[in-house]
Amino acid sequence: MGTLGGDSGSGPLIHFDEQYRIRVFDPKKYEHAEELKEETSRFREKLAEFEQEVGTLLKVMEKYAARIEKAKSLAVGRRVLRDLDQLKVERRRAHKEANLKLKKEELERLKETKDSLVKVKLEQEALISKLTMMGEGRDPGALL
After folding, report:
1. Element at 133 (helix H, strand E)
2. Which residue among 14, 19, 51, 132 is least packed, with the fewest CB closer than 10 Å?
3. How many other C-beta atoms can be found within 10 angstroms of the C-beta atom of residue 30?
4. In this structure, how many other beta carbons lie within 10 angstroms of the beta carbon of residue 37?
5. Residue pair 5/12 in contact by the 8 Å Cβ criterion
6. In whole angstroms, what is the distance from residue 22 CA to residue 3 CA?
7. 48-62 pLDDT tens trace
8. Helix (H, G, I), strand (E, B), or coil: what is residue 5?
9. Using alpha carbons only, what angle is made at residue 46 by residues 41 and 52, rounded to the nearest 5 degrees?
10. Predicted confidence band at 3 (pLDDT cuts at 50, 70, 90)?
11. CA 100, CA 94: separation in Å to the nearest integer?
12. Residues 111, 116, 119, 120: is their CA dihedral positive or negative?
């Protein structure tokens, strides 16, 4: 290895490497530059791998997000259906209770009508019995 040219203050301008090739740079600096070049290449490769991994991860996350959104929509739909069913049940119950109330009121009216009719029937039977006795010549006051 050797150097040629240049003044003593500026350093050599031309260098020879171990295979006697001419180099403009100092061999140590050239070696360091080559190491940086290789390290940069490895870094770029790792960065490309990282970008690919991130891309794959994003695709997986998007799939999961879509599945989550679908499940969330289904859950909301089920909740709405459940609420609607509950409203239907409550409406049916209220309708049945209203019908039951009307039926009870009608039953009460019918009972009162029956009681009134039974009373009228008894009164009419008593009157018929009284009139029948009068027609036979018996004393109607004796029966009461």
Report:
1. helix 27-136
2. 19
3. 14
4. 10
5. yes
6. 9
7. 999 999 999 999 999
8. coil
9. 130
10. low
11. 10
12. negative
